[in-house]
DNA sequence: GTCACGTTTAGCCATATGGCTAATTAATGA
DNA sequence: TCATTAATTAGCCATATGGCTAAACGTGAC
């Protein structure tokens, strides 16, 4: 127990904000500068920059500053731990509903 | 833009805490009372109860109070929005790396 | 050299989060 | 009935989060 998984903490936390998810959406199409990323969001730049910081701290994006422009790109493989956690869970409860008969399953299906 | 998806906010937020993830782990094996769930966590009960509240608010668990015991059970299908978001993203960037040639792909593979 | 541009730093604010103790409620069992 | 038990409520605290403005920084363009 108490097996701290700080990685998952950071990742889920990073994903819990709509602005940040929108940034990831955008970056899925290809790299972009901080300014480009900020444009669609009605928010002061320094506020926005914090979101970039959170995403980078979680490892979901990486950034390179060239001249005065910081370019951000996605690190898709960082979704892996999240993916893993979810599929582990799916297996856990599927294994469990397997152990229950189909009657019990149908009861659970009420949700 | 600014398409608030409060559901995902709540879900990712709920999943961002190790105590709460541990509770979900436990509940994947079957229902349990608040007391049983709290036992492995070195934490005062009222603190723990808040976590239960967060999980319930996110819809990840449901609880029934019978007598003085509140029993909690998992609502597995609530993982669905999270799952959906992730697979949408996987598709997005896979589609993109498809558009790039294999040379560009190999460059990206550096991460 | 100087000015504009893209970004960052510094500092502030309100609210949320995750923890605690003490006291309360409600149900069970002796 | 009365003590014990399971959980909740109330209230407190420290820190984190997500936003802001004003000012500074560093680079590129003219």
Automatic annotation (TrEMBL), chains A, B:
InterPro entries, per database record: ArsR-like_HTH, HTH_ArsR_DNA-bd_dom, WH-like_DNA-bd_sf, WH_DNA-bd_sf
Q: Which domain of life is it from?
A: Bacteria
Which Pfam families did the record assign? Answer: HTH_20
Domain HTH arsR-type: start-end pairs: 1-94
Alphabetically, the GO molecular function entries are: DNA-binding transcription factor activity
The protein's name: Transcriptional regulator, ArsR family protein
According to its UniProt entry, this protein's organism is: Pseudooceanicola batsensis (strain ATCC BAA-863 / DSM 15984 / KCTC 12145 / HTCC2597) (Oceanicola batsensis)
Q: Recite the lineage of the species.
A: Bacteria, Pseudomonadati, Pseudomonadota, Alphaproteobacteria, Rhodobacterales
């Amino acid at each position: 127990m108490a097996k701290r998984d700080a990685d998952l903490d950071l990742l889920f936390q990073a994903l819990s904000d709509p602005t940040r998810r929108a940034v990831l959406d955008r970056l899925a199409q290809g790299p972009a500068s901080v300014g480009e990323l900020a444009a669609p969001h009605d928010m002061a730049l320094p506020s926005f920059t914090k979101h970039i910081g959170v995403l980078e701290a979680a490892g979901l994006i990486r950034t390179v500053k060239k001249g005065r422009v910081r370019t951000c790109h996605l690190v898709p493989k960082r979704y892996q731990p999240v993916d893993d956690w979810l599929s582990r869970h799916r297996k856990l409860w599927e294994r469990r509903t397997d152990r229950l008969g189909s009657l019990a399953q149908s009861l659970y299906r009420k949700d």
